[in-house]
Amino acid sequence: MSHTAITLFKENRLHGTADFPCACYHADSTVLPANTPFLTKHHWHEELEIIYFQHGNFHLEINMEKYAITEECFCLVGSGDLHYIYSEHDFREMAFVFSLSMLSASAADPVQNRLVQPLTEGMLALPRLIFHGSPCFAVLKQEFFQIAGAAAIFAKDTPRRDQYRINTLDQYMHAKASLLNIFAALLEENLFEVSGMNADRRVDTIKKSLSFMQEHLTEKIGIPELAAQANMNGQYFCRFFKKVIGKPPVAYLNELRIKYACRLLKETDRSVTEICLESGFNNLGNFMRTFKMVCGCTPLQYRKAL
Fold it and tell me: In CATH, what number does 3-194 get?
């Protein structure tokens, strides 16, 4: 099944704006509290992404393929690719997330016909990793930093993976020009691959499971419901989910519920009991224990800290 045929819950974060559909992100352990890890949970989006691993050791997963990143390199993530990043400490990472509409043309155009349309339809695939020894690495690094500069990513220290938007036409034009230069360098080295359109069924299954959890996190669902939508028996589904995601499905679902509860604590004045029930927990004691395990504090302490 091609990515374009999948209609699922995807990352609902807006990358950039409607006019300028792109944004930069930056993570740096030197401006975080000591021993704070870097984690980007399993997710996917329609936009493409260029990730620059500047420094540190990273555990990277894309469509269930695992990579150990121990040196400076670039990673290119395609539309709909399920990806995950983790680094325990001492890391510097940047990412540029962008819509292919940045390169689209309304009239007949070779870039549109030979690059944008094949990428959109899944007939052409991005190269996965580009290391320092690649002939196009220097071009990618130069143009990537031009994009980061256009987004003013170096304007301030950041305590988390903040979004840096491109807000003006001149910034957008600089970013677009650099992106075209990056794609030209990849083409020059024949690094684009013809896609076989044979998506891993396991990736589709885990994406459906994550979508189902997100869509029903406030409801009473458990292993039988999760396994049924994946067309598996309960025991096999639990093993499968833990192997891919790294934790049992109920634990992951409860983390999603706690994240939702945190939003309610921040944005509403509802009581803890009301938020407990609205977040999909039927037992206040279980909610309190899970909240403290995930957040390191009680719900009231969390609200007070805000």
Answer: 2.60.120.280
